[in-house]
Amino acid sequence: MNEFPSFDLTGQVALVTGAARGLGRAISLALAHAGANVALGFRDVKADGGLAREIAGMGREALPLQMDVSNLDQMSRSIEETASRFGRLDILVNNAGIAPENSAESVLEKDFDATLAVNLKGTFFACQAAGRVMIRQKRGRIINMSSQAGFAALPGESVYCMTKAGIAHLTKCLAVEWGKYGITVNAVAPTFIHTPGTEEYLSHAENRADVVERIAGLHRIGEPVDVAGAVVFLASEAAALITGHTILMD
Fold first, then answer.
1. Is the pTM of this model over 0.85?
2. Cα(38)–Cα(54) distance, integer angstroms
């Protein structure tokens, strides 16, 4: 064992779903900064926004992938391609998610199905595909994206809240099953984060004030890099004895 905790990911291979913007982009860059080569899962591989080039500029390898997590064929092929290209897969970050907002009495079946397909089904089957690779390796780190919405009731977001609560418990279940293979499975559950998905809501002064003064314990809006820090920690050897846990952020 090292005498001191190590946060270094040099030579490791990570795959991040929903990498195009917001949390996914920040997490991908943070993993690369820590030393990892990063496979980038995009719903539209043509819309990477220069992310692969930025990672290459850090001296890491980037592998852009067409990876709509609601399409199980695309997802399994992407994970296979990553393992084939790099010879391994050390870290999976299940970041992709959607959050159609509507009152419970007005939720449409198509929105319900789409939210579960991405947030829950997509997360499970990405874990399954990556888990098969990691079981062979006898090592791996899986980090799922839950939310404080999985622990608090948010009006108008019943389906989203349900999926994020499900992710927290799925994380525990997989940790129990796969611990014997040297695989840790954890999740992060952020508070309100300033991303393209929350920008419109936070652009209204009254909404922003409510988040800062009532919801956010630190009285500021979280930034994607705040979440990325927790992901890098959970992916590192410093977190080797942590599994089945969901880190509530703020």
1. yes
2. 11
